[in-house]
Amino acid sequence: MRFVSGTGILCAASLVWALLVGASAAQTFERGVVRITQEGREATLPVEIASSARARAQGLMGRERLAPNAGMLFVYEDDARRFFWMKNTRIPLSLAFIDKSGEVLEIIHLQPHRPGTPIPSYTSRHKVRRVLEVNQGWFLKNGFGLGARVILE
Questions:
Q1: Vertex 90, ends 65 and 133: CA angle to 5°?
Q2: 3-state DSSP call for residue 120?
Q3: Which one of 25, 95, 105, 121 has the lowest number of neighbouring Cβ atoms within 10 Å?
Q4: How far apart are CA 137 and CA 104, in angstroms?
Q5: CB 7 within 8 A of CB 115
Q6: Dihedral, CA atoms, 7, 13, 15, 18, nearest 10 degrees?
Q7: What is the pLDDT of residue 27?
Q8: For residue 90, is it within any domain?
Q9: Could you tell me if 129 and 74 are in contact, meaning their C-beta atoms sit under 8 angstroms apart?
Q10: Structural domain span for residue 99
Q11: What is the C-alpha to C-alpha distance for residues 29 and 42, in angstroms, rounded to an integer?
Q12: Rounded to an integer, what distance in angstroms lies between the CA atom of residue 44 and that of residue 39?
């Protein structure tokens, strides 16, 4: 009987450890809303905020979908050229590179990574402070382009 109890404790401890390890591997993100404006047009977009190095490294990797009117905002403390890749990313994305004043300087469109092919990546042409990822085509569909303003509310 003592052996069974010890095994039960060991199994319970193993289960707790697996849950803790799994929970620590999954990244949770802050949530917020961005307001996008351009030439009289305005949209609000709920976003997950990736402001830590760990959150930015995770990004949208492993996700099967992104809600049609949602995004992920990558926030940095300094201005620099930003490097993005599509490793383990299954969603076609449009990325807006945003300077410290909130102006969109560049928009690119990236395809999901197909196993067995090189991992697509891109480096921004300009030094930026934030990057907004949305479903591919969202900016065009909603009438936003270069020069749009993106403000985190």
A1: 70
A2: coil
A3: 25
A4: 15
A5: no
A6: -130
A7: 64
A8: yes
A9: no
A10: 28-152
A11: 25
A12: 15
Q: Would residue 78 count as lying in a domain?
A: yes
Q: Which amino acid is at 147?
A: G
For the record, the structure tokens of 49 come out as: 């905020």
Q: Which amino acid is at 110?
A: L
Contacts of 149 (CB under 8 A, 6+ apart): 36, 37, 38, 102, 103, 104
Whether the pTM exceeds 0.90: the reply is: no
Q: What is the pLDDT along the chain (153 residues), one digit of tens a residue?
A: 333 434 333 333 333 333 333 333 456 899 999 999 999 999 999 999 999 999 999 999 989 999 999 999 999 999 999 999 888 888 999 999 999 999 999 999 999 988 888 887 899 999 999 999 999 999 999 999 999 999 999
Lookup: tokens for 104: 């969109």
Looking at this protein, which amino acid is placed at residue 87?
K
The SS3 of residue 57 is helix
Contacts of 91 (CB under 8 A, 6+ apart): 60, 63, 64, 65, 66, 112, 135, 136
Tokens representing residue 124 in the block: 């921004």
The total number of structural domains that make up the chain: 1
Domain CATH code at residue 96: 2.60.120.1140
Determine, yes or no, domain membership for 10: no
- CA 30, CA 53: separation in Å to the nearest integer? 13
